[in-house]
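User
Please review the sequence:
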Amino acid sequence: ANHLLMVFLAVEMASVPSYALAGLLKGRRQSSEAALKYAVFGAGTAGVMLYGISLLAGVLGSAHLPTMAVNLAQMLQTGLDPGRTTVLALAGLMVMVGLAFKLSAVPFHFWCPDVFEGASAEVNAFLSVASKAAALGLLVRVALGFAYVPEPRTPAGPSAQVAVLYSVADQVPTTPAPASETGTASTEGHAATPAADHAREHPAAVAPPVQHLSPAEATRALSPVRRYMVSLIAFLAAITCTFGNLAAYGQTNIKRLLAYSTIAHAGYMMMPVAAAVALVGRADQTPTRLFGQSAPIGPAEGAIAALVFYTATYLFMNLGAFAVVAFLRNAMRSEEIEDYAGLLRNCPGVVICFSIILLSLIGIPPMSGFIAKFLAFGTLVDSGLLWLLVIGGLNTAISLFYYLRIIKTMTLDPEPDRRLPVQLSLLSRPGLYIAFLTVWVVALGIWFNWLNEWSLTATHDLLS
């Protein structure tokens, strides 16, 4: 979507079904309470986001992203008064509030633990992946839409000589009319009209032309906008992953722990977005070679490709984790971590698969989570966000302990007497589903080249 209203509608169309899914367990008070909280907070942040969009459209004269970027660059080039600067900064913050709520980024994460605990694990698997993927795609579109003005592309063949001009009046691409064979157009290629004839006959009556900004000049003029967005996104990413990992320590319910884990991973996935915005405005756009890919790509494009790779691997990791939680809940009638004690003796295959998935969420090689974090953190080196790289590395070390606590409980702790007998074999249908997801988690960490190539293709489609 290139229009901010379409962005808003897309976010809300993805959100309304999520509100209903959160309250799917009708007979459970906790589920209804979680769904109501989710809907009320979601409606509030949607209103804030819509108000921010209205402010942006009011100042920039349009809600079309490419047009807004060109208008904003023109304003910055000619000088922006403090009042408009404040309104634009506030409007951008409001739009970010709406996207941060969908990402469960701190401080707009408060709905996530309650909703995850109240909703079923099957619904949580969907909410933790689908909603975040949609919100990340919209964040990339909005952030890069204001970060630079792309070079106009012309089709190949005879029509390649058609020029694309950025009109100062409406700041949208306009294509000059070609000269017709009957000679009804001027030699300059513009259609012959009474206004054009009057302009040629009375040049003094025509206003002097305003200097157009080329895409490169407009991108340079947007440098303050990029600095603002990089600071905002990087700050939210840092506090989100830090808070998510620290808050997961005190959790005794496995679904609440995984909820804070998804908050932390939302912070990790926002890091390549900040890197892409920082890289897109650099004068040196020398193509680099993304790890594992055969074709050289631009540095900003590589950051988004790393985000796509992370999202794809996160899909299998989180689906696998919540699948184990759902099947064990059906067998034990409990979601408390202490009731997982000694599960290795009852269902060793499921425990091994769950342990592999948890190690991948940490980022231990050779799991796919390691490759995902390697690529995401590599973009921080390219963009010079070394302080964010340090925070990401420290948070990875912090997450090691609460994930390992689950593995230690399942393998080393004695089995509680009060727990119902648990029999969950890998040869059963639930076990085969868990094994299928675990195989993907491991395979994508070893044979990752094809997913990297697919990530680059998806990035081309997203940015084109």
Remarks:
- Residues 4-150+216-463 form one domain.
- The radius of gyration is 26 Å.
- The CA atoms of residues 275 and 380 lie 6 Å apart.
